[in-house]
Amino acid sequence: MSDLQERAKALDTEDGLAPLRKLFTLDDTVYLDGNSLGALPRHVPARLQEVLTREWGELRIRSWDESGWWTAPERIGDRIAPVVGAAAGQIVVGDSTSVNVFKAVVAATRLAPEGRDEILVDASTFPTDGYIAESAARMTGHRIVPVAPADVPGALGPRSAAVLLNHVDYRSGRLHDLPGLTAAVHAAGAVAVWDLCHSAGALPVGLDAHGVDLAVGCTYKYLNGGPGSPAYLYVAARHQAAFDSPLPGWTSHADPFAMTPGYAPADGAVRGRVGTPDILSMLALEASLDVWDGVGIDAVRAKSLALTDFFLECVAAYAPEGRVTSVTPAAHAERGSQVALRCEDAEPVMAALIARGVVGDLRRPDVLRFGFTPLYVGFADAERAARVLADVLTGSAAPAA
Amino acid sequence: MSDLQERAKALDTEDGLAPLRKLFTLDDTVYLDGNSLGALPRHVPARLQEVLTREWGELRIRSWDESGWWTAPERIGDRIAPVVGAAAGQIVVGDSTSVNVFKAVVAATRLAPEGRDEILVDASTFPTDGYIAESAARMTGHRIVPVAPADVPGALGPRSAAVLLNHVDYRSGRLHDLPGLTAAVHAAGAVAVWDLCHSAGALPVGLDAHGVDLAVGCTYKYLNGGPGSPAYLYVAARHQAAFDSPLPGWTSHADPFAMTPGYAPADGAVRGRVGTPDILSMLALEASLDVWDGVGIDAVRAKSLALTDFFLECVAAYAPEGRVTSVTPAAHAERGSQVALRCEDAEPVMAALIARGVVGDLRRPDVLRFGFTPLYVGFADAERAARVLADVLTGSAAPAA
After folding, report:
1. B78 touching A, CB under 8 A?
2. Given 3.10.310.30, 3.90.1150.10, 1.10.230.10, 3.40.50.1820, which CATH number is that of A3-17+295-395?
3. What pLDDT, in 10s, does the model give residues A221-241?
4. For position A398, what pLDDT does the model report?
5. Taking the CB of residue B316, how many other CB atoms lie within 10 A of it?
6. What count of other Cβ atoms lies within 10 Å of the Cβ of residue B255?
7. By CB neighbour count within 10 A (0-12 exposed, 13-18 middle, 19+ buried), where does A301 fall?
8. Which residues are recorded with the post-translational modification N6-(pyridoxal phosphate)lysine (chains A, B) (predicted)?
9. Which residues of A are annotated as catalytic?
10. How far is A31 from chain B, CA to nearest CA, in Å?
11. Could you give the CA distance from residue B291 to residue B212 in angstroms, rounded to a whole number?
12. CATH number for the B46-292 domain, one of 3.40.190.10, 3.40.630.30, 3.10.20.280, 3.40.640.10?
């Protein structure tokens, strides 16, 4: 056993979160793609079977009340809330992240002071945020100002209505300064909208503590909700009364079953709902969140940093010189829970890794992404991934420049 | 056995669709709420178990390709297409009906000739359509003109951009004249958007045959997709190249995995996609659609009309004089697949019906709704429902006026 393998073993032994791994369905694969699709919590299939056979199959329509289907969006929102540092009553689950970005950005422009016409958008954002923000801008008479997150403070001004930022960059894994940028947005009198897709469940977000206005996130990455599980919308309590949704569907109505022709929005987080909730996906997510019971996000963060540090150390020790370069910041304060390595021949390298049981993913053209989900990835996984990567890189010549 | 009971027995014996009932999980309940939540097709739990344990649990991220997750929205759209009279390649599944109404209404205003500023909306519509259309109007600089469907031809004019109509009224069960109204909309140079929630799967729609421009619908009523299963959007082939979505999420991009900052829409129905598809709800729907294999919508329609005719006949024979009045049109050409009875004390009457195993639903303040799903409701069910209704009405005095 090599030195790094022994270190891995010791780190796994000391790891207080290690027992959580057995809550998930995993095999011999080193699964480093939980930042794209989280692994299956073992108990979810049995729970969903009950939803299907008992709640849908036998109770049918009665389940909207008796099985708590109707209130699932806000109930599950309250389960996510502690993971992202929000008090209850501010998060509602439903729709895709893209749809929630639309709600949040349009609503942000309506919360902003009159007469401001600019929406600042993270220029390195996951594309859907930019596409949807562009549509929101077009439909609300604003213009988009693309800006690198670090440059936001300098770009803010009296024309800034809203700012849409990613907490962690999906490609590089860079963690942006949510507290500092939110404060800068507020100092300029604008509204801060954060996309938490790549941070929620991996590190502390502190939505309430840092005064975030609006936030969205998906639930199928570090929250393990299942493929395409519904996203969520956070509307800070202080903004709820003025939150003006561009998608005022009937389930956000103050009295939805009165079915009145005039729209009157519900109070609270419920105002962010739109249509009938997709119960199967939603209740799978709810069950998945059980794995968070008693888990503190600070412990998750500590392990995440230790894992990515250790992986980078193993890569540095094992990989042939010059074949991969980390684009993930070395500073902890700037690092999410993934490591992105630039590699000229990333596509065949990732294919070879997957064939050898190390599953990460590719961001074209040249980025190998490895996500570290602290609930089920261990240090031995990190060491093995680096070792297999080194083997693959050694076995394949670097392409001619 | 009474005369009507004998008639019911004979009708059930002759019913070519009767064998389909065994494909569903049903019990002794007379389930007449399939127009709100369709019953569970028996094979769905096993299929979803496979999706959970094998596709998510074992293949994980690989399932986006290997299990066909990525293409599910358009693949399932093509499964729905024949049920609503559409050729392949025009329907995409995803999001809620409300979200699809937003896409369709905004896109309709963009397809309409320049300079038109009115959106006509069915004044008796299911509320969400009205709320969402109002938001679409606000965001696109149009104004809403509420109009009864029958009055649409007279209300159309050179200012009409788009018209949003329900094929079947959710409350009364009235079937509107889709071919005639669509033709009138086109004659005025406007764009026709139809909401098929209460017709798809219960009667022929003929989207292509009647030249409908855009349509939306849910899948959890007569299509039995499960609670809150994803809705769908139809964009007629001739409009696809100009279809300009207000929700241009990344999965509607021509090359989504290139993740380019600029949006370039995909061709075809895929352009109506938004975010990551909710796979669990979506694949439950896909499995549910198996019950349609080999079933013709004309046979479904014939049985639906026979069922509602027979139910109305039984109610007339059994119910105490003057306690209930049908608000569902007697004419077949104006009837959907539900019977709505006005009843002064509808709320306690429906509660008593449900307690006695006849499940319909209530539309406040005074409408008892009974949905007839031809795939699994039989004539004996209709007779029993009417008989129990009569018992309940006889046993409870009519409230003082």
Report:
1. no
2. 3.90.1150.10
3. 999 999 999 999 999 999 999
4. 56
5. 12
6. 10
7. middle
8. 221
9. 126, 195, 220-221, 369
10. 9
11. 26
12. 3.40.640.10
In terms of DSSP H, where are the helices of A319-378? 346-355
Q: Between B57, B60, B98, which is nearest A247 by CB?
A: B98
B364 touches chain A (CB under 8 A): yes
Question: Token pair of A228, please?
Answer: 């395409």
Three-state DSSP state, B116? coil
Decide: A256 and A110 in contact? Cβ < 8 Å: no
Residues 272 to 291 of B: which have CB under 8 A from any A CB? Answer: 274-282, 284
From CA B36, how far away is CA B124, in angstroms rounded?
18
Shortest distance, CA B103 to any CA of chain A (angstroms):
10
Q: Which residues contact A363 (CB under 8 A, 6 or more apart)?
A: A170, A171, A340, A369, B259
pLDDT computed for residue B261 by the predictor: 85
**Bridge-based pairing state of the strands A30-31 and A358-359:** parallel
Tens of pLDDT, residues A38-74: 999 999 999 999 999 999 999 999 999 999 999 999 9
Residue B269: count of CB within 10 angstroms of its CB? 27
Q: Residue A288, Cβ neighbours under 10 Å: how many?
A: 27
Instruction: Give CA–CA dist A380/A397, Å, rounded.
Output: 27
Are the C-beta atoms of A223 and A200 separated by less than 8 Å? yes
> Is the separation of the CB atoms in B14 and B197 below 8 Å?
no
Q: Is the ipTM of this complex over 0.90?
A: yes
Q: What is the pLDDT of residue A401?
A: 44
> Could you tell me which of A90, A329, A76, A332 has the C-alpha nearest to residue A209?
A90
The domain limits of chain B are 3-17+295-395, 46-292
Q: Where are the alpha helices (DSSP H) in B208-342?
A: 237-240, 279-288, 297-318
A226 in B contact zone (CB under 8 Å): yes
Reduced to 3 states (helix: H, G, I; strand: E, B; else coil), residue A358 is strand
User: Of these residues, B220, B234, B243, B372, which one is catalytic?
Assistant: B220
Stretch among A102-116, A117-131, A199-213, B170-184 having the lowest mean pLDDT: A117-131
Q: Which residues of A367-396 are buried (b: 16+ CB within 10 A; e: fewer)?
A: bbbbbbbbbbbbbbbbbbbbbbbbbbbeee
- Predicted confidence at residue B401, as pLDDT, reads 44
Exposure of B189 in the CB half-sphere (CA atoms within 13 A): 11
CA distance A124 to A148: 7
Size of chain B, expressed as the number of residues it contains: 401
Which residues in chain B have their CB less than 8 angstroms from residue A30's CB? Answer: none
For residue B222 the two structure tokens come to 């007569």
Task: Please give the average per-residue pLDDT across B155-169, as a whole number.
Answer: 97
> So what's the pLDDT on residue B143?
97
- Answer yes or no: are the C-beta atoms of A240 and A269 closer than 8 Å: yes
What does the block give as tokens for B363?
């539309």
Q: Across the interface, do B60 and A44 touch by the CB < 8 Å criterion?
A: no
**Residue B132 is inside which H or E element, if any?**
helix B127-140
- Closest partner CB to A69 (pick from B40, B227, B257): B227
* Rounded-to-integer distance, Cα B115 and Cα B160, Å: 9
Q: What are phi and psi of B52, to 5 degrees?
A: -70, -55
Handedness of CA A42, A44, A47, A48 (dihedral sign): negative
Give the torsion sign (CA, A296, A297, A302, A308).
positive
Are A273 and A247 in contact by the 8 Å Cβ rule? The answer is no
The HSE-up count of residue B344 (CA atoms within 13 Å, CB side) is: 9
Any idea what the Cα angle at residue B290 is, between residues B289 and B292, rounded to 5°? 75
Of the candidates B329, B351, B353, B355, the residue with the CA atom closest to the CA atom of residue B340: B329
Nearest to B71 by CA among B262, B279, B265, B245: B279
Length of chain A: 401
